[in-house]
Amino acid sequence: MRNRVRPDARAVARQVDSRGWTLIELMVVVSLITVLAAIAMANYRNAVIVAQEATLREDLFRMRDAIDQYYADKNKYPDSLEALVTDGYLRKIPEDPFTRSADTWQAIPAEPDPANPTAEPGVYDVKSGSDKSSIAGTPYAEW
After folding, report:
1. What CA–CA distance (Å, rounded) separates 55 from 96?
2. What is the tens place of the pLDDT at every residue in 113-136?
């Protein structure tokens, strides 16, 4: 018969301890995951805002370019932004990325023509109708 060696109490305790996680270890892991998730969410939100700002810049550039082309072709500013669409300078009025509407653009009228004071001045410039501010702190309505 073989001699059986009885495990001592310390060996049994080590086996029990190595089977699971302690509460402190779980709390550390959960708090690390929470911190990493919070950082990821903040970066995601900033990325969305940066993308919306880039879209706004591009939309303003395209509409202002269309207004300039309209003026160069017809020697007058368009009566409204819709005139750019009906005359084929734009396919459609883009949606403001911050107001989510194509109807909130602020049309800036041109100076009246001193040679023809009765003529409608037309749309000289366009700005966002949003009341929000950019990441840099300037209002989108001033872009």
Report:
1. 8
2. 777 777 778 999 999 999 999 999
